[in-house]
Amino acid sequence: MTYIRNAWYVGSWSHKLEAGVPLAVQILNDPVVIFRTQSGKVVALADRCSHRLAPLSLGRCEGESIRCMYHGLKFEGDGSCSEIPGQDLIPANSRVRSYPVIERHGWIWVWMGDTDAVDEELIPPIIGPDEGTYLLGKGDIDYQAQAYLIWDNLLDFSHLGYVHPTSFNSTETWGETRPVFTPLPLGVRADRWVLDQPPLFGDQRSDQWFTYDFLVPGILILTTKTFPVGKAEEFGMTTPPDDAAWIQNSYSAHAITPLTDGTARYFFTFGPHADGGTEAGRDAFLELAFTAFAEDQTFIEAQSRIIAQSPGAQIMPTSADKGITLFHRLTDKMIKAERESKLEPAA
Amino acid sequence: MTYIRNAWYVGSWSHKLEAGVPLAVQILNDPVVIFRTQSGKVVALADRCSHRLAPLSLGRCEGESIRCMYHGLKFEGDGSCSEIPGQDLIPANSRVRSYPVIERHGWIWVWMGDTDAVDEELIPPIIGPDEGTYLLGKGDIDYQAQAYLIWDNLLDFSHLGYVHPTSFNSTETWGETRPVFTPLPLGVRADRWVLDQPPLFGDQRSDQWFTYDFLVPGILILTTKTFPVGKAEEFGMTTPPDDAAWIQNSYSAHAITPLTDGTARYFFTFGPHADGGTEAGRDAFLELAFTAFAEDQTFIEAQSRIIAQSPGAQIMPTSADKGITLFHRLTDKMIKAERESKLEPAA
Amino acid sequence: MTYIRNAWYVGSWSHKLEAGVPLAVQILNDPVVIFRTQSGKVVALADRCSHRLAPLSLGRCEGESIRCMYHGLKFEGDGSCSEIPGQDLIPANSRVRSYPVIERHGWIWVWMGDTDAVDEELIPPIIGPDEGTYLLGKGDIDYQAQAYLIWDNLLDFSHLGYVHPTSFNSTETWGETRPVFTPLPLGVRADRWVLDQPPLFGDQRSDQWFTYDFLVPGILILTTKTFPVGKAEEFGMTTPPDDAAWIQNSYSAHAITPLTDGTARYFFTFGPHADGGTEAGRDAFLELAFTAFAEDQTFIEAQSRIIAQSPGAQIMPTSADKGITLFHRLTDKMIKAERESKLEPAA
């Protein structure tokens, strides 16, 4: 599996990045150090001193810079080396790679591709945890599995009735019915009603409306609204009106970042609408999410092990895989275009 | 090392396979799920759903079937897929491999090769733990070593005096004398007297008669009888008469299954003859076996590490290796024949 | 990285090698067993029985020999096999490799190359822990990193001010100034004054004189003397006279042995001059060394991980790397000569 490089990957939570404390991560196999400077700016550099390849994440933040604490070379936010102790000459190859970085919606987004192609507009339109509409809990999980297996899990909710029957109270209706998938320029939209279902909390059955966008490079934005049984039909089995009174309204944003070819970090928020929502409700949602996502993790890590033990084994898509197929077709095309753009002679 | 595929490998104990509880194993690198259906039949399937390669061993047994609990596909004992939730069409490539399986002598035997070649007669004539003649304890050990190193250990008992001097009270006579090896159609037979030896239990020295068959694909069947000192000579140093009164008579069956190229599972029974044997005696035998087999494991796992550290190192057979040489010659020939049979055009 | 083979590598401490207790080590990837015979001689053999490749280090020392405790083959100090139980013929290929070995200066030195090239004079002129001039504590550390990264660390003390500011009280002067490097036939010499520095112990600032030889195949011999501030200038910023009164005089010998391509064992002694030195002082030096060397280890193991994650990444030498460059140039030349000598037809 190759991953798109011209994209924003979530490297960290905003709130976990303390000023002056470098954070080591891997993204798409690249060792990256992320740090917040004295002035509050976030910087992402190759986590590898140009001198002897020691990690800058063991270094010391100094103002807007970071100093390698092996032999003292100092680097600026743009990756340039500004000091080599005991030496006046700063050679050109002393520069380390600097990754464009944007702090938005509670996350630190790192651009892993060509700087020529950087496009701030490509950051997905997420509702961040502190943006008010929803009361959102925050979680993250490290996976011993390929990121794309987690993406595929999220692109096919037919697993809910089998993997989450008790945590999310999901029924097998999830597997028996199909959502409507709509291709998006940078992803796939899935909309569906699931009728007369047990609720997440309490005991009032409801018609449930799920709509999510799954966007490059592995971002899920999900809204769920539940209504009294019968409302789905009343709404013509299509998108409920914005002003329709719901029983429950929850929101969730997920970002699954490939750390290496075989590992991933899964960042997510989850919680109820601020209207009628409470902090206790938010915490209950989050606890539920951790329970259910651990169920996914068991399956996906086991799936990853079976794949490793089965050279040559092929998947067999079913009609439930339409979202997965659309999304992979899109990313394959984007990866191909990335490759070809590198082969073009510069204008 | 290549292993024979047209053979029955022990995948599990019978008594450990509860109805409705799938068991994950690897045999010859293949992930396999073994389960007992509602009607009591034992089934072995590739532990890999045809859909997205999740392990069926995380699935749910339903009557005679197993359902993948990732997206709900259901599989029958013959490997056919009988249900894909939300989809009427069952494609031909939805089938998973079904391995022939026989439950016998307390073990679950799995056929890893061509179904055309299945032959129930190839299951070795073991005395099972519940078959009455002997009171047999049961044990198993997981090895971080190639199965064939364990086989070789069992094909050359000259190690007993060096590896098991205190556990089995074995003397260096084991290394100084040689058994008579006789080729069998599917293995090697070893017979020997070891004279005037200390006993396993108590302090009465004895002449000891050991006879074992080591059979494809890694099955040892061992009988030991001890007699008063002098009896070996009286019996002409050959097989003691069946009705000759013994002091001790014990039996042991061993099955060493390659899990992967570098790991193995060792199943064994061990215990005294029912005539005069007691449950306490059986337990004492089993405890002794665990002690001695841990001594073997220390050596064989260390040997495996040294081999990994020594690319190109060759073994140097001694005259003690006759059984090993005969057995490897046989299996090499069988593996070659298996390969050639695959190259033949179908009639 | 290839390592020189025609050299003496430290395989063990003398005092840790009890007579009759075989020690398993790896040196340059070779499994080696070292043992002290009944007569006190030290022997190093390939840790791999010629029969079935079991480790001789699990064997039993018998007089001047070692017996493999798998099937009982016995080996002499020269690697010849002197006994195969149950067999009169001792084949020529039963011999195991014997490594020349010398016990000197508290260490066991093992020659890993051609026996034709053995040269006792190549053992570096170390002061051993029991040779009186210094009171030397002894330590060793196992590294999950390539030996040459540890060598490079010792060949460039500019890291002291960054890695050891609190343990060794080192200042950034170490990075801002450079030693004088002098090529030696089998290594590199570094001499330097560091002026007006805080002391290791107490609070008297001093001018500090450091001189070390770093010798093939990874041996550091370091002497440090401190003098009242101003003395360096008085001595013309060059080697202080032997009879000049010092405040502190310490000595340290280090041997870094590559165990495998990616692991190493670091043996060291450290302590004050016997004149005025005390056992408590020696213990304080040793404790300090362990603290500081753990700081190095953190950096070097992290550097090793970054290198593994960064295929193709190149180092960028600075002017602080002169010693490293000189030493690698020397060893590269020696390795090339070793290779070429193997290609020459024998005279």
Rough outline of chain A: globular
CATH homologous superfamily of the largest domain in chain A - what is it?
Naphthalene 1,2-dioxygenase Alpha Subunit, Chain A, domain 1
Number of helices of chain A: 6
Largest interface comes to: A-B, 28 and 27 residues
How is the quaternary structure best described?
A: homotrimer
Known CATH architecture of the largest domain in chain A: Alpha-Beta Complex
The share of residues in extended strands of chain A comes to: 25-35%
Structural class of chain A: alpha+beta
Number of strand elements of chain A? 18
Largest sheet of chain A: 7 strands, antiparallel
Mean pLDDT of chain A: 96
From the alpha carbons, calculate the radius of gyration of chain A and give it in angstroms: 22 Å
CATH topology of the largest domain in chain A: Naphthalene 1,2-dioxygenase Alpha Subunit, Chain A, domain 1
How much helicity do the residues of chain A have?
10-25%
CATH classification class of the largest domain in chain A: Alpha Beta
> Any low-confidence stretches of chain A, pLDDT <50, length ≥5?
none
Question: What is this structure, in a nutshell?
Answer:
Three copies of one chain form a homotrimer. The first copy, chain A, is an alpha+beta fold and 347 residues long.
List the helices and strands and how they pair.
3 copies of one chain form a homotrimer.
Chain A: E1 8-13, E2 23-27, E3 30-36, E4 42-46, E5 60-62, E6 65-67, E7 74-75, E8 81-83, E9 98-99, E10 101-104, E11 107-111, E12 137-143, H1 147-154, H2 160-163, H3 173-176, E13 180-184, E14 187-197, E15 206-215, E16 219-228, H4 231-234, E17 248-260, E18 263-272, H5 279-308, H6 322-343
Antiparallel strand pairs in A: 1-11, 2-3, 3-4, 4-9, 5-6, 6-7, 7-8, 10-11, 12-18, 13-14, 14-15, 15-16, 16-17, 17-18
